[in-house]
Write a structure and sequence with these properties.
The complex is a heterodimer of chains A (257) and B (274). With 257 residues, chain A is an all-alpha fold. The two termini of chain A are 29 Å apart. The C terminus of chain A is likely disordered. Chain B contains 13 helices and no strands. In chain B, helix 2 crosses helix 13, helix 8 packs across helix 10 and helix 12 runs antiparallel to helix 13. The radius of gyration of chain B is 22 Å and the shape is globular. The mean pLDDT of chain B is 85. Classes of the chains: A mainly alpha (257), B mainly alpha (274). Chains A and B meet through helix 1, helix 3, helix 5, helix 7 and helix 10 of A and helix 1, helix 2, helix 4, helix 5 and helix 6 of B.
Chain lengths: 257, 274
């Protein structure tokens, strides 16, 4: 009981402070000015759009890459599952700042041609690498989903009825593991919206980078947006805790690593 | 065959940057092999930064481990589908994995020079601004790190706590053990590998983290990631890229050791707890 009170003070304290702080506008009065700033500040707005675009594209690529891999491994190469899993969690061993250092070096060594294709826009420069960062989360959630269904029966039935691999994946397996997909997608979106180290080191203007910049002179606005960011992420994970079946829920948030 | 796209993707987008880090660390700008970059990292200021980073990781993982375990014990008594568990679970997920920059600003709003908690403390006679305390310091970073380490511990240790069977407690009590005796001779030995493993993971997590520290202090912070960013961005001197990359390799080595230990302990932990 003592610990619950301690935890409530320590964890809610800064959040309540942030909430109160966020209502004090730059002119000293109370109001929602710090929140509406998001719509007036074009740099913030456009950085949020950039980050949302990256989040969407990262999610699509992550699913297109990981779902077929997980299904294939579970179906055909169960012995390879351990290898694929170890590779998927490998990004955990590499700190974001080291990934950023590698990318910065890659960027400076890249030929003009590659640079113009990849490194000119944050969307093409960051997305491929955010997919890598999302892999540990994505593999776990998708693997739990795929293992919970009777994969072999579904595949045999679909193949007997003449389904090709694409039909099988999109119209048979995908609907059956949609909760796992939703989980993987939510975690990926949360990850992209929070990632600051790589985009800052490579000097791309994503939402978290712009948030830090805003905090240099408009602390109130940065605090307000921080309150919003944490609330939105929490809502996302809270909703995830309701969807899906029992087996999957055990492995969901608590056992990402 | 089916794993080919995955393998190629990983080789390209994970292997690429990783290769650049390792290659850049062991070669000069002209491409000949060198030990210079690594030997530089064994001098100041990098040794000091490593000490700070390791100290921060050690302290926050131990404190996070103790309080996280305590909190998890309180939370686990509520059923897995209870509202308390959902709120703590999802809240802990946010803080443990995605807090980053917003966490820094929440602490600035609370304990910054004009923070709400600072004002509150001032009203009862404690002036945080009088001394050398500032939230934009290693002390501030320490507080923020504890703020995400405790939730991570809760998430990591709850499955292990759930694996403790009530029958074991009943059997021990039936054989005349006190609660302390049960904890001392049954629960603690069974939980030990999972506990140590979780604290190791916390250590690695704090050691690798940078987002919150960056938002709070900036790249001038005396932690290894701060130095890497400065060296890479060319803020210090030209041609010091290699030292930054060597520091990066050393960070990977530290975390790899931690993860190998974690994996070994995890195997032991699952012997009893499933």
């Amino acid at each position: 009981m003592t610990i619950l009170v301690l935890a409530a003070v320590f964890f809610l304290g800064p959040q309540v402070s942030a909430l109160r702080y966020s209502f004090v506008q730059s002119n000293g009065e109370n109001g929602l000015g710090n929140y509406t700033q998001l719509f007036h500040d074009s740099a913030l707005g456009s950085s949020l759009v950039t980050s949302l675009e990256i989040a969407a594209l990262t999610t699509v690529i992550m699913l297109a890459l990981m779902l077929p891999t997980v299904v294939w491994v579970r179906l055909r190469l169960p012995r390879l599952a351990v290898v694929v899993e170890s590779i998927s969690v490998l990004p955990i061993v590499i700190p974001p700042i080291v990934m950023a250092a590698g990318l910065a070096t890659l960027q400076s060594h890249a030929s003009a041609q590659i640079s113009s294709v990849i490194f000119t826009s944050p969307l093409t420069a960051l997305t491929p690498f955010y997919v890598i960062l999302a892999m540990p989360f994505a593999f776990r959630s998708l693997d739990v989903g795929v293992r919970a269904i009777d994969l072999r029966t579904l595949v045999d039935a679909a193949r007997n009825l003449g389904a090709g691999w694409t039909t099988l994946l999109l119209r048979v397996i995908l609907p059956n593991v949609r909760t796992a997909i939703l989980t993987a997608a939510s975690l990926t979106v949360a990850l992209v919206l929070a990632e600051v180290v790589i985009s800052e080191t490579l000097l791309y203007d994503t939402y978290p980078v712009e948030l830090v910049n805003t905090g240099q002179n408009l602390v109130g606005v940065a605090v307000a947006l921080s309150v919003l960011s944490l609330a939105v992420t929490w809502l996302l994970l809270y909703m995830v805790s309701f969807i899906g079946n029992r087996d999957a829920s055990r492995a969901r948030i608590g056992r990402l690593l | 065959m089916g794993v080919a796209p995955f393998a190629v993707y990983v080789a390209l987008f994970l292997g690429g940057p990783l290769y650049e880090v390792i290659y850049g660390a062991v070669t000069t700008t002209r491409g000949s092999l060198t030990w210079f970059n690594f030997s530089q990292t064994f001098h100041q200021p990098y040794v000091g930064a490593f000490e700070e980073s390791l100290k921060l990781a050690l302290l926050t993982s131990l404190i996070g481990g103790v309080f996280g375990l305590w909190l998890a014990c309180a939370v686990v008594t509520a059923g897995p589908r209870s509202p308390l568990r959902r709120i703590v679970g999802s809240g802990a997920g946010v803080l443990a994995y995605f807090a980053g920059v917003p966490l820094a600003f929440a602490f600035i709003a609370a304990l910054g020079r004009y923070g709400e908690a600072t004002k509150l403390l001032q009203d009862i006679g404690i002036n945080l601004n009088a001394g050398s305390f500032t939230i934009s310091s290693l002390t501030g970073i320490f507080l923020c790190y504890v703020y995400f380490q405790v939730p991570l511990m809760v998430l990591l240790i709850i499955p292990a706590l759930e694996g403790l069977r009530p029958e074991w407690h009943e059997a021990a009590t039936g054989l005349g053990a006190s609660t302390f005796g049960y904890i001392r001779h049954v629960a603690a030995p069974v939980l030990a590998p999972a506990l140590i493993g979780a604290v190791l993971l916390l250590f690695g997590n704090a050691f690798a983290a940078y987002a919150t520290a960056y938002a709070l202090v900036g790249s001038s912070v005396n932690l290894v990631p701060g130095w890497i960013q400065q060296l890479i961005s060319g803020n210090v001197l030209v041609d010091e890229n290699g030292i930054g990359l060597a520091l990066g390799v050393e960070m990977i080595v530290v975390i790899a050791i931690v993860m190998v230990g974690y994996a070994a302990l995890q195997r032991r932990a699952t012997r009893w707890l499933q």
